[in-house]
Amino acid sequence: METINLLKKIFSSTKRLWALFLLTFVFLEPLGAQTPTPNQKKELIRILFVLDASGSMFGRWGKETKWETAQKILANLSDSLSKLPNVETALRVYGHQYLLTEKNCNDTKLEVPFAKNNGAAIRKKLSDLTPRGITPITLSLEQAAYDFPSTPARNAIILITDGAESCFRNPCEASYQLQLRGISLKPLLVGIDLPEEARESYECIGKLFNSKTETQFKDHLERAIYRAMASATLQVELLDNNGRPTQTDLNMSFYDTQTGYCLKNYYHTLDKKGNPDSIDIDPTPLYNIVVHTIPPVRLDSVEIIPYQNNVIQISSPQGFLEFQLTGVDVPSNVKEKIKCIVKGGEYDQIINVQQLSTTEKYLAGKYDLEILTLPRILIRNTEIFHGKTTTIPIPTPGTLSVSKSDPTWGGLFIFENGWKVKKLYELKDDLKLENIALQPGKYRLIYRAKKAKSMHMTIDKEIEIISGQTLSIKL
After folding, report:
1. Is it true that 318-395 and 398-474 share their CATH fold?
2. What CATH number belongs to 41-229?
3. Phi then psi for 14, rounded to 5 degrees?
4. CA 431 to chain CA centroid, nearest Å
5. Is there a contact between 394 and 344 (Cβ–Cβ < 8 Å)?
6. Digit-coded pLDDT (tens) for 78-132
7. Fewest CB within a 10 Å sphere: which of 169, 220, 285, 335?
C-alpha cells in the first residue's frame, strides 16, 4: 500500500513521468509477483506514436497551435522514454506530405523506425514537419501493422489526432485486425479537443483520452504511455461448492472482450500452500475468461487494474461421473463400443460423450444421460455433487450371434408398452455372421430370405438375451 501511495505522489509531481517510469520499470514489480533474479530481462515494449499532421492541427489552442503543443509535449516525452532500457519507440505521421486541397488518402509514412534511445530522432523529425493535408487514420492503422519488427515484444499504438477519418473508411475495422492478428494491443487514443461526432466514432478503436486544454493533453498523453507500459498480475480462484478456492488443473482461455480473439491459455495450478498461481497479464484489454470444465464456465468483462495483483473468483465446483457394468464381465472390445451422451445446460445440448468404464469430471449439477446400448438407456436428471462420484450401473449385455446361409433382409425389434413396435437394428444382408451386443431382455427377430418372393415367407421369432451369455441363431 505504501508503494501505491508513493506512485500517486510521484505521478502528481511536475516531473512525474520520468520518476514514475523509473520507479515502475526499474524498481517496482507488480504486487504479489516474484522478484526477478538479476539474470532475468524485462519485457521489451514497443510504442508506436501515430501523429496527426493534417491541416487542422494549425488551429489555435490556447497560446499555441495544436501542432506546436503536440510537437513540444511528444518530443519531451520521447526523450524520457529514451532513458528506459526496455523501451523502443517509433513515429508514424499522416496528413503532412500533400496539401489539403489534394485530398490524398495515402498520406501516411513511418518517419522514425523503431529503435532504443529514439528521443533525439523523434524530436528532430517533429521539428522538420509541417501540417498540410487530410486525416487518413484507417490507412495509418493498417500500415502500422508493418511498422513493428517481427521479434517478440509487447507492441502498443498511441494515436494522436484532432479530428475524424477523412477518407470514408472504417478505423474500427483496422484496429480490430491489428488485435485479431496479435500485432498490437488495443490502440490508445489521445484526442486534441475532438468534436462529439469524432469521439463517438473512436469508441470502437480503443481507450480514448480527449483533451480540452494543453495541460490536459500532456496529462492524457502521459497516462496513455503509462497504460501502454503497465503490467499487472492475476490470480484466478476456482471456487468449490463451499466457496473455497480448491479447484485446479483446468485450462483457462483469456479472450479480448472487444475482438473475441484468444490472447492466452493457461492450465490452472495451486502452489504448495494451496494458493492459486500468479500470472503476468496485460491490463489493457477487458477479458472474457473461459474455464474449460464440463460444461465450460465463463466470466465476462474482467478488468485488470495496473500494478496490482488482481484476484478474481469463478465458481466451478466439480464432481465425478462413472459408468460400471454389473454382473458378468465382457470383452474390452464390447466395452469400447458402449458410450454415453451427456446433455445439460440451458438448451439441453450435448456437452460430452463418455466411454463405458471411465470416470470424468463435471460441474456439480443435473444432467440427462443417453447410454448408447441396444436398446438405448435414458436417465434424466442425474445429479453430480461436488467432490463426490455418481455411479451409473449398466447391466452387462449379452450377445446375439446371427449366422446366415443366404443373403437375408431382417432386423431386431422390441415391443414397447406391449403393443408399439420399435426397430433397434438392421441386419447386414451381405454379412454371413453378425455379433450384436444387446441389453438383457426379450426381442423379436424378424427376417426374410432375399430370394423369397412372397411376404408370407417372413419369419417373426421371439428371442431372449441373458446378461453375459451368447445366443446363437442360424437363419
Report:
1. yes
2. 3.40.50.410
3. -70, -30
4. 49
5. no
6. 999 999 999 999 999 999 999 999 999 999 999 999 999 999 999 999 999 999 9
7. 169
SS3 of residue 73 by DSSP: helix
**Residue 185 and residue 469: Cα distance in Å, rounded?**
65
Q: What are the tens digits of pLDDT across the range 54-92?
A: 999 999 998 899 999 999 999 999 999 999 999 999 999
The three-point CA angle 36-41-42 to 5° equals 85
CATH topology of domain 232-315: Immunoglobulin-like (2.60.40)
Sheet holding 359-363, edge to edge: 359-363, 318-326, 389-395
Query: CB under 8 Å to 374, separation ≥6 — which residues?
Result: 397, 412, 424, 425, 436, 437, 438, 439
- The residues spanned by each domain of the chain are 41-229, 232-315, 318-395, 398-474
In 3D space, the residue among 409, 239, 216 whose CA is nearest the CA of residue 312 turns out to be 239
**pTM of the full structure:** 0.70
- Judge contact between 335 and 314, C-beta under 8 A: no
CATH class of the domain at 398-474? mainly beta
188: which 3 cell numbers? 490508445
Question: What's the CATH architecture for 318-395?
Answer: Sandwich (2.60)
Helices (H), 129-260: 137-144, 171-180, 196-202, 214-229
How is residue 116 written as a grid cell? 532504443
